[in-house]
Design a protein that fits this description.
With 287 residues, the chain is of the alpha/beta class. The chain is 49% helix and 16% strand.
């Protein structure tokens, strides 16, 4: 009789140990692990290709992001995308925006372009008389001081908290800033893109920091093409590109070592979209 009772106790203990209670925390851990595993599979497959999209991912980032997605499903996610001028930031950002359109055709994202936060220098241009003279005087768009980063941070904090904001609008021809011009509404994914969005002032409030790496020869070709579209040609364009390259060396390229994710801009738009859609399908229940 004693032996039978002892055997029953053992069975009861074993049953209790092997059948944990599935509360909300347990479910979150399980779902986060599932998302982490699937994201790692997508990234591993990419990294085995001849020209990977993913160059580097900070250790522990995927796990941290997966748990944040499932444990705080109503919290807005702020993604910052940086890289050198003409590196392909805008292309990547547009694909993320495409990804965030839901099946009900509802946009789950909003874009805060940091280019609109350049400080007004239209009076300085008028006083100098030309772009060449302005650049000769030391004017430089490729340094953090040229952007109103405190205002950008303030607007990002507001929209992340659920407020509608009105951002400035910047004209690259007249280098004039028009305040409170562009209406932006809160969304699940808040994207901010531009040269200096990985500066500490902004990076502190980002949930995901992305740096886009592009070879210098590709950047130069793209940059001169865009310079023409913005009215910069000849000596003015050459002077500006020299400043851009110097600024990138000092301020931008160091961002890569601290970014959560470093991506290559050499893959086709089609491939980038395919990878991003795989990521979306993995985490869509959290969006």
């Amino acid at each position: 009789m004693v032996n039978i009772q002892l055997e029953e106790n053992i069975k009861t203990e074993e049953l209790s140990y092997n059948a944990p209670v599935f509360n909300e925390e347990t479910n979150n851990i399980y779902l986060a692990h599932h998302i982490e595993k699937n994201l790692k599979t997508i990234i591993d497959e990419d990294m085995q290709s001849e020209q990977p999209l993913f160059i580097n991912i900070k250790h522990g980032f995927i796990r941290s992001l997966a748990y944040k997605l499932v444990s705080c499903p109503k919290e807005r996610i702020v993604i910052g995308v940086s890289g050198e001028s003409a590196s392909g930031k805008s292309t990547l950002t547009s694909k993320i925006l495409d990804m965030s359109i839901s099946e009900k055709h509802r946009s789950l994202s909003t874009l805060i372009n940091s280019d609109n936060y350049y400080k007004d220098a239209s009076e300085e241009l008028k006083a100098a008389g030309s772009y060449e003279a302005l650049f000769d005087s030391g004017f430089n768009l490729d340094e953090p001081q040229a952007v109103d980063l405190p205002l950008l941070r303030n607007d990002l904090e507001k929209i992340k908290a659920g407020e509608v904001i009105f951002t400035p609008e910047y004209n690259f021809f007249t280098i004039e800033s028009i305040p409170n011009k562009i209406k932006k509404v809160p969304a699940k994914i808040i994207l901010t893109e531009g040269l200096f969005v990985l500066e500490n002032t902004i990076k502190e409030i980002l949930d995901v920091s992305v740096y886009v790496h592009t070879p210098s020869d590709v950047i130069k070709e793209r940059w001169y093409k865009r310079a023409v579209e913005r009215g910069k040609v000849g000596k003015a364009a050459d002077m500006l590109f020299d400043t851009v390259n110097e600024g990138a060396t000092q301020s931008l390229r160091p961002y890569a070592k601290d970014a959560d994710v470093v991506l290559s801009a050499l893959r086709t738009e089609k491939y980038i979209k395919e990878v991003i859609m795989k990521i979306k399908n993995t985490i869509k229940n959290c969006l």
